[in-house]
Design a protein that fits this description.
Distance between the termini: 75 Å
Number of strands: 10
Shape: globular
Mean pLDDT: 84
Radius of gyration: 26 Å
Helix content: 25-40%
Length: 294
């Protein structure tokens, strides 16, 4: 009996020692981490090593059908809010445009000229970040040496990023059928933010800013959490998840065609353009369904 009591006593003392050691080594979230005092319970997880979901890249001879589709994503629609908010970065979350802007600023991605007739991504169409800043009047704060007057560096503050003015995106994607594995897929090829600013006549005018090849953006979107809902700030999905899982709404404004015209150019009214959108969408759906027999 004494030996049993002795064993229990030793076990209790060991547990107490472990708890004391844990308290000494583990730091509470509210005690700060690395000298940084957090303002709330963490809503983000470490995504620094996360990689985007890999595509199954088809061989050219296996793609027996494809169609290029151009879409518009309107961020004023509620389902697209996670791509627009927060307007100013907070709690490790930021909008899609802020993410793109910062990556562009750091030289991690490249932007290319928007042309209505074609998309060409090479040195002849590449746009420098400084040119974008000047063109759209983004405020830059310069650090000046008080003695020599030399410019030591520059910074663009969060509030000066024109996130609020970017309310639409153009999306270029390819729908295709891969005969090697009998699958119908959609691949996003490029994305273009569209900014709305007042022109010289005081009229709000939309302007496509630049194309970004989507594959160059995906590794960073896979590490950027999205603000999904007001009801649960702990919901964790990345920007890449929203696109790959098609958790956004959009409408077609153009398909690849011999005359390279968008829907507005050969439909005189909104009603006609809407009918054409439905025809294109149904044609894609019907093609996929007609591949199978029931």
């Amino acid at each position: 009996m004494k030996s049993v009591n002795k064993t229990l006593l030793i076990g209790v003392m060991a547990l107490i020692s472990l708890q004391i050691a844990a308290q000494e080594t583990d730091t509470s979230f509210f005690d700060g981490n690395g000298g940084v005092i957090e303002s709330n319970i963490p809503t983000s997880i470490d995504l620094s090593q996360r990689e985007p979901i890999q595509y199954n890249n088809p061989r050219a001879e296996d793609v027996v059908w494809q169609q290029v589709i151009y879409r518009i994503i309107d961020l004023r629609e509620k389902i697209n809010f996670p791509l627009y908010f927060p307007e100013v970065a907070e709690d490790h979350r930021q909008s899609l445009f802020t993410t793109i802007f910062r990556l562009y600023e750091q030289g991690k991605i490249k932007g290319y000229e928007y042309e209505a007739e074609r998309e060409l991504f090479d040195e002849t169409t590449e746009i420098k970040f400084d040119d974008i800043v000047k063109k759209y009047g983004t405020m830059v704060t310069y650090d000046i040496d008080t003695i020599s007057g030399d410019t030591l560096g520059s910074v663009i503050n969060e509030v000066d990023i024109p996130n609020k003015e970017v309310v639409k995106y153009y999306l270029k994607e390819v729908c295709y059928f891969d005969k090697s594995n009998s699958t119908f897929n959609v691949r996003i090829m490029a994305i273009c933010p569209k900014i709305y600013q007042m022109n010289d006549e005081g009229v709000l005018e939309g302007s496509p800013m630049f194309w970004i090849p989507f594959d160059s953006l995906r590794p960073y979107l896979a590490r950027q959490e999205a603000y999904l809902t007001d009801r649960n700030n702990g919901a964790r999905e990345t920007m890449d998840d929203l696109f790959i899982k098609r958790k956004f709404n959009s409408y077609i404004f153009k398909t690849s065609n011999m005359r390279n015209r968008n829907l507005i150019e050969y439909n005189t009214t909104i009603e006609q353009a809407k009918k054409e959108q439905d025809l294109i969408k149904n044609a894609i759906i019907n093609y996929e369904q007609d591949l199978w027999e029931y």
